[in-house]
Design a protein that fits this description.
Blueprint (H helix, E strand, L loop, with lengths): L1 E5 L1 H10 L2 H13 L3 H7 L13 H5 L14 H6 L3 H20 L8 E8 L5 H4 L4 E4 L5 E6 L3 H5 L1 H17 L8 H19 L6 H4 L3 H12 L8 H9 L1 H6 L11 H17 L3 H5 L3 H7 L13
Parallel strand pairs: 1-2, 2-4
Antiparallel strand pairs: 3-4
């Protein structure tokens, strides 16, 4: 297993020092080109002329610092992620998260992994509502973390990486296609967050779970989501997964769901599943959602008690 860290701090330094007219292409080639296989899988053009102005730069700049923002003004942000121990800690978290599967008898079809940590756009509401950190690990072999660097977000980087590594392993086994439904996303997010806390502690449980209280989960979220598990089409199920505010930011129709409803529901659903079946989190990670959902029918009627 080969794990490579793309040192974004070094790239930011180069782009900051580059003339304005060179920043965009330098960033494209240094930061985004190593992830070329991911862009191809996601069908995101590498250069704008291929798709009416939309390309990897446009996509990446939705949540992260754009190349034209990479001036000396962001040097204090870059300093947060320029410490060698930060990167070695990230690499150790990724290594631990992936090797745990091998140690528990689950082989990994993918052997090469590339990860990086990018500076987020502080004006991005989708990032700030998540307390300044987010990630993406759904394409096997590629792992991203976005953060607004501070003591809080850096303290949670291990758990964020573990969460994304869990997605990365799952989608080496589970086929993602146009027919993916809300049930799969609820299960997937529940698995990822249970995995992160199993490795690094429940004190690092993300805000996408901790902000939901017992009353909201049992009275507002569960009765609605249990009826929507077969819903397909990202624009249809996104509001149930992310909640109305994040959905509206993506121009999706709100459905009267609170922040990260599907994440909170999934976290407690998977806890219920693991407790009921005795399965391990490693076994559950690579199981089809339909099989898990068949085992948790009692979850929807049972009162979930959220401690703390």
């Amino acid at each position: 297993m080969n794990i490579t860290a793309l040192r974004s701090d070094h790239i930011y330094q180069k782009v900051i020092e580059a003339p304005p007219e060179d920043k965009l292409e330098l960033f494209r080639n240094e930061m985004l080109a190593p992830f070329m296989k991911q862009w191809q899988i996601q069908q995101i053009p590498f250069r704008a002329e291929e798709a009416n102005g939309f390309d990897v730069i446009t996509f990446n700049s939705m949540m992260n610092r754009a190349p034209d923002q990479m001036t000396p003004n962001i040097l204090p942000e870059v300093e947060w992620i320029s410490v060698n121990s930060f990167w070695s800690g990230c690499e150790q978290a990724v290594t631990t998260s992936l090797r745990q599967f091998i140690e528990h008898g689950i082989s990994l079809p993918v052997s090469d992994y590339l990860f990086t940590v990018q500076l987020g756009d502080p004006e991005n509401r989708a990032l700030t509502i998540n307390e300044g950190y987010s990630g993406f690990g759904g394409i096997p072999g590629f792992i991203w973390i976005t953060l607004l660097p501070n003591q809080h977000t850096l303290s949670r980087i291990k758990a964020a990486l573990a969460h994304e590594c869990n997605h990365n392993v799952r989608y080496q086994y589970i086929q993602w296609d146009h027919a993916v439904d809300l049930g799969e996303l609820i299960v997937s997010e529940g698995l990822a967050e249970n995995y992160a806390t199993s490795l690094f502690g429940e004190e690092l449980l993300g805000p996408w779970v901790t902000r939901t209280d017992t009353e909201t989960l049992n009275r507002r979220i569960k009765p609605v989501l249990r009826e929507q598990l077969q819903l397909t089409g990202f624009h249809h199920f996104a509001p149930y997964l992310y909640g109305d505010e994040l959905a509206e930011l993506q121009n999706f129709k709100p459905v009267n769901m609170p922040y990260s409803a599907g994440y909170a529901c999934g976290y407690h659903l998977i806890k219920y599943y693991l407790r009921k079946t005795g399965k391990t989190i490693w076994e559950a990670t690579i199981m089809p959602a339909a099989q898990i959902l068949e085992e948790v029918k009692g979850y929807w009627d049972e009162e979930t008690i959220i401690s703390g």
